């Protein structure tokens, strides 16, 4: 009894090449054909967080340049990059949920396993709206400062 329990619930880490392997129509049956939807959902939920992280780092770099140059246009670009990063995070969460739901349609959960989402999933669900709020704040700040900057130019000319 102990061996079958360990075989069912044992966590296994995957290598990078195993992350990109094809998913099959019948999980575990290599002769059943490739399930393209599950394969690409898995790949997207693996790659999109890295794209989001890259966009956030690039946005931070542009934001730093905006502070140094005292220009408004990099602030707008930082807001747009935060928006794209939020979309990537939301896409990653959506791909994960869709892939898990498709897998649960094909396989039954063992009796001793609960199919609940963990804390990292909850953090990902919270981070997407926070990225959208950061994006809105950057774009709003750039828009507000542009009005004040235009008024300052008008006073200088007068």
Automatic annotation (TrEMBL):
PANTHER family: CLAUDIN DOMAIN-CONTAINING PROTEIN 1. It is found in: Membrane. Its main location: membrane. The chain crosses the membrane at residues 46-69, 81-105, 117-142. This is Claudin domain containing 1. InterPro entries: CLDN1, PMP22/EMP/MP20/Claudin. It comes from the Eukaryota. It holds the Pfam family Claudin_2. It is a multi-pass membrane protein. Keywords: Membrane, Transmembrane, Transmembrane helix. It comes from Cebus imitator. GO terms for cellular component: membrane.
């Amino acid at each position: 009894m102990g061996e079958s329990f360990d075989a069912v619930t044992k966590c296994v880490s995957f290598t990078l090449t195993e992350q990109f392997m094809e998913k099959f129509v019948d999980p575990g049956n290599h002769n059943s054909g490739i399930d393209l939807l599950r394969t690409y959902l898995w790949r997207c939920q693996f790659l999109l967080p890295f794209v989001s992280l890259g966009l956030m780092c690039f946005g931070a770099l542009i934001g730093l340049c905006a502070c140094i140059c005292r220009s408004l246009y990099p602030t707008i670009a930082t807001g747009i990059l935060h928006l794209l990063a939020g979309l990537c995070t939301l896409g990653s969460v959506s791909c994960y949920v869709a892939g898990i739901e498709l897998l649960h349609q094909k396989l039954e959960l063992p009796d001793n396993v609960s199919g609940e989402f963990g804390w990292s999933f909850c953090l990902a669900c919270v981070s997407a709206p926070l990225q959208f709020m950061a994006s809105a704040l950057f774009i709003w700040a750039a828009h507000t400062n542009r009005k004040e900057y235009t008024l300052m130019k008008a006073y200088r000319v007068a």
